[in-house]
Design brief:
- With 272 residues, the chain is an alpha/beta fold.
- The chain has one domain (3-206): Alpha-Beta Complex (Spore Coat Polysaccharide Biosynthesis Protein SpsA, Chain A), CATH 3.90.550.10.
- The chain contains eleven helices and nine strands.
- It has helices at 17-23, 46-50, 70-81, 101-111, 141-147, 165-168, 180-191, 211-214, 216-229, 235-248, 252-269; strands at 3-11, 33-38, 59-63, 85-90, 96-97, 115-125, 131-135, 160-162, 193-205.
- Strands 1, 2, 3, 4, 5, 6, 7, 8 and 9 form a nine-stranded mixed sheet that branches.
- The radius of gyration is 18 Å and the shape is globular.
- It comes from Pseudomonas cavernae.
- It holds the Pfam family Glycos_transf_2.
- This is Glycosyltransferase.
């Protein structure tokens, strides 16, 4: 019999941050299982961390012998357990679920039968725990499709989706280094409706050693390739391609400032 929900967490040398993430998962509405995939950790193994968990959730551990990358870790978890559940939620080590995150996203998908994928707004916090900003992702599906060419319209650790997506779309692409989520989002919205709950349901840690920082150029190259693959000749598609090309050749220290001006242009293109 298919269970209601699982939370999929990839792990690589993350230590106790895994425990903090698991302990944040709400379990009053439904008690989700937690699928932890250790991507060949060389330092602290996930198994060493999990043994200190004394909470009510069932944890299922999948271990890869060698580090293969987050997309392979996610796919291993999905291939091993994904189809055992009606809904699959994502979370990363160090990120925290807000109260009722699981309940609100499952209830949305149960009410909106034509929707297969839902994210939320996200609070971003620094290493010190200080709130930095809230990313307010769009909820309207047409707006989501347009703005996907400019930036991911979902924040990966905040999404929950129907496991039926695995049969209609498959698992994460493995040909988009450091941008597997962006590629997967594009595949999903081409076939299924998606939205974002207009409320912060997850707190995400900004890690200076995260993928978006240490693999920035590789990530942007992948994003350009993904945009070209999905190009539909709309103003947003042209603008997104130019934007990514500019960012590829712009130092990160300048890209934040440049982003402010690009967002002004994004608002203007939404008028088309």
């Amino acid at each position: 019999m298919m269970k209601k929900c699982c939370v999929l967490i990839p792990y690589y040398n993350a230590g106790e941050s895994l425990l903090h993430s698991i302990e944040s998962i709400d379990h009053e509405f439904v008690r989700p299982d937690v699928i932890v995939v250790d991507d060949g950790s060389l330092k602290t193994k996930a198994a060493e961390v999990i043994k200190h968990y004394n909470g009510p959730l069932t944890i299922k551990l999948v271990e890869l012998e060698q580090n293969q990358g987050i997309e392979h870790a996610l796919n291993k978890g999905l291939d091993t357990y994904g189809r055992d559940y009606e809904f699959i939620a994502r979370l990363d080590c160090g990120d925290l679920c807000k109260s009722d995150r699981i309940r609100k996203q499952i209830q949305f998908l149960e009410k909106e039968n034509s929707y297969y994928f839902v994210g939320s707004w996200v609070d971003f916090i620094g290493i010190s725990g200080k709130h930095l900003f809230t990313l307010q992702q769009p909820c309207d599906f047409d707006e989501i499709k347009k703005k996907m060419f400019l930036n991911a319209t979902f924040t990966h650790p905040s999404v929950t989706f129907r496991s039926a997506v695995l049969d209609s779309i498959g698992t994460y692409p493995t040909d988009a280094p450091a941008a597997e989520d962006y590629a997967y989002f594009f595949k999903i919205i081409k076939k299924h409706k998606a939205s974002n709950i207009q409320e912060s349901l997850v707190s995400c840690l900004i890690d200076p050693n995260g993928i978006s920082t240490i693999k920035r150029r590789s990530q942007i190259r992948s994003r350009i390739s993904i945009i070209i693959k999905n190009f539909d000749y709309t103003p947003h598609a042209f603008y997104g391609l130019v934007r990514s090309a500019i960012l590829l050749h712009t130092p990160r220290s300048l890209s934040i400032l440049l982003n402010k001006y690009l967002k002004q242009g994004m608002r203007k293109t939404s008028e088309f």
